[in-house]
Amino acid sequence: MPNPIDPYAALRFKEFNIFLGVRFAMVFAWSMQFIVIEWQVYSLTKDPLSLGIIGLMEIIPAVSIALFAGHFVDQKEKRSLLVKCILGFSLVSLGLFLVTLPTVEATYSPKAILYTIYGLVFLGGLVRAFIGPTIFSLIALIVPKRIYPNAATWSSSTWQMASVLGPALAGFSISWIGVHWSMCVIFGFSLMALLLLFRIAPKPIMNPNLGEPVLQSLKDGLRFVFQSKAILGALTLDMIAVLFGGAVALLPIYAQDILHVGPEGFGILRAAPAVGASLTMLASTRFPLHKNAGKKLLWAVFGFGVCIIIFGVSTLFWVSVIALFLSGAVDGVSMIIRQTILQLKTPDAMRGRVASVNSIFVGSSNELGAFESGVAAKLMGTVTAVVFGGCMTLLTVGAMALGSPSFRRLDLSKDVEEHERD
């Protein structure tokens, strides 16, 4: 069996490597699709509020059914459920491919196309509500408990790597082959994820309370999250930071109207945070972050807010890229610590429900942050909106640091040691 301190411990399990391939293909397709949609919608409307509406169309279904999705995931076999989720995403991608056909654009009005895109994004939000809890639960069934921290790091690193390449390719793809054929590439990657997933065997259902009433199940899940100070603190801090630091949603405006760098520059800007986060995560496989986790998380989110402010006021492309790169680097620290907290402190029977709460607090705050940024840009102007978001992030960190001494003292070393002994 692999050595628990081996930085490649999780990679020594065949199914985990296949899982990483599935996750890479899905995140690559999803992140590329979001960028292409952003570009197409802003090209149709030239209205920053329309970018915020994209986020709103995804967050409404994602938040509305997230808790039910968590209960459903805890009751079902995870591999088969993920197959259904990927099929749903593939149908959304196929719909976006069809709606961007030149013949469709020539036949229907821009408003009709815009509303159809919003509708497909809404359906994607429904799918997303189930994907997050399913993936989180599946990881714990592929590797043993003592490998959880290492597996969480590699899984997050894969997510970030796909987030680098997806937006980067999206920018170049829009320039080279256009929006329509870019959607075809996205559809191809979703099918690749589906084929890989069939190489993972079905897993046992770990929940001893199968058939438990939905309301009781949801109540138990929420009670567990709100009674765990470590989980609640990490989710709250990250949610508010992402909510007000959602400058990435306004990148089409920066690329087209402020920095004037076109679709290629847009792809570079969009990929810069994920490049920084990927490097941080790869480094963390050798230099774990569980010691003094609370302080490290607070400093990471503080650094994120500073980077967002610098990006907001920059009019130089290279300064903007560096600021976004550094924001991703410190955000990578935040993501690793949060995922480690969730993996170590969540019982197997509650993984779906805890992950669904996580998706409400953090995952959906990306889309809500996009809506907030779009509205703020409409009311304040783009630059002011971004700087305002960065300042709110700094205030959030200060409030958490002063108001929660127990979170500031959080250290995960003992939790890691206990899992290594299991």
What do these coordinates show?
This protein is an all-alpha fold and 422 residues long. The protein has a single domain (12-201, 214-421), classed as MFS general substrate transporter like domains (Growth Hormone, Chain: A, Up-down Bundle), CATH 1.20.1250.20. It has 17 helices and no strands. The chain has helices at 14-45, 48-64, 66-75, 78-99, 102-107, 110-142, 148-197, 214-227, 229-244, 251-258, 262-284, 293-313, 317-345, 351-380, 382-403, 405-408, 413-421. The radius of gyration is 20 Å and the shape is globular. The model has no long low-confidence stretch (mean pLDDT 82).
Computed Rg: 20 Å
| Strand and helix order | HHHHHHHHHHHHHHHHH
- In CATH terms, what is the fold-level topology? Growth Hormone, Chain: A
Instruction: Give the oligomeric state of the chains in this entry, treating copies of one chain as homo and distinct chains as hetero.
Output: single chain
Low-confidence stretches: none
**Count of individual helical segments:** 17
* Major pleated sheet: none
Distance between the termini: 13 Å
CATH class: Mainly Alpha
Question: Can you tell me the CATH superfamily?
Answer: MFS general substrate transporter like domains
Gross morphology? globular
How many DSSP-defined strands? Answer: 0
Number of domains: 1
Integer average pLDDT: 82
Helix content: over 70%
Strand content: under 5%
> How does the helix and strand content classify structurally?
mainly alpha
Name the CATH architecture. Up-down Bundle
